[in-house]
Amino acid sequence: MIYGSPRDRATDDAAVAVFTKAYGERAASLPPVAIVIAAYNEEGAIGPVIEALPGNACGRATAAIVVADGCADGTAKEAAAAGAMVCDVPVNRGQGAALRLGYRLAREGGAAYIVTTDADGQYNPAEIETVLAPVVAGKADFVTGSRRLGSQETKDLIRRAGVRFFAGSLSALTGQKISDTTFGLRAMRAEITAAVQLEQPQYQASELLIGVITHGYKVTEVPATIHRRRIGESKKGQNPFYQLHLPGVNNLFYGMRFARVIYGTWWRERRRSGRAMRSKGPMKSKGAEAAGEKPQVLGAEAAGEKARALGAEAAGRSEAGRYEAGQSESGGSSSSGRTRIGPVDSAARANGSGPGSAETSASSATSGSSADPAKRT
Hints:
By secondary structure, this protein is an alpha/beta fold. Helix content is 50%, strand content 14%. The protein has helices at 6-23, 25-28, 46-52, 75-81, 95-108, 128-136, 157-174, 192-195, 204-214, 249-293, 295-320, 322-328, 343-350, 358-365, 373-376, and strands at residues 33-39, 56-57, 60-69, 85-89, 113-116, 142-152, 186-189, 219-226. Strands 1, 2, 3, 4, 5, 6, 7 and 8 form an 8-stranded mixed β-sheet that branches. Strand 2 (56-57) and strand 3 (60-69) form a beta hairpin.
């Protein structure tokens, strides 16, 4: 796991220790699929969400992990009563930080796959298998649902326009066609969450998506559904005027912050890729320089490699034909006038270390010539 802040690492380390102590062997031996949910003050909503989760997905057992992110209500108790494993963090850091911790708990617990969904019941648990199936089948490393390919109940025109705008922006920046950058129902191979840098405390969906794409993992989308929130209220776009519920203000703050995450993450990953390419450049230059300075040494090494390859091939052929050679010499007969060659002898001759080898024959055939066989390779 790549952390951007030592404080975040310390907080996660403490939370992991408490979680491991509370669940013991269960925390260390998770089933193949871990369903990770970040929750903040979702009492009344989280229980039904946990109860609706499938016990198996794509023929693999599942376990629900809820990260209660500094909740001030009964979210943690309700989730535990519904059957989830709960990591109760005492401070509220944001959905991104909570999911990052959940990824770590799932990965270190031995889960092979991670599925994420929200605590508010907006995603259909029956579609978990839909997003997970391509990952299990090896067709993708990361799969995200898409409301634009599926359906959505929201009638918020500003939110719909924002989804389209940011999808187009991310697609243009990364070169990967994406129709929905914020969909929370996703599935991925567990190990990829350790390969990308996750430092955003909020709006982590786009950070993870950009990181996965720029690291070269295979990403795909599947049609999915997002429902209206029926219990509680959305935490997105909170701002100094959030409680006033001013029309459009929450969407404006959400859009500004989301844009900052998208463009900031893309720029960070672009610089990382540039540094990686520059670090590989000198190595190639040195290799080319060495090849120019020492052609004889490299030629000899190449000749040795070729000889060893020929030796291995000859050994395989002689192993396959040993029975026939044994038949022709059975009973001690030597009327054929040929010496029996076993696998070791064949390999030795091909490597140039035995009588009748390719090297010996080449030496006798070219005696008097000053050409070095290694230089001709």
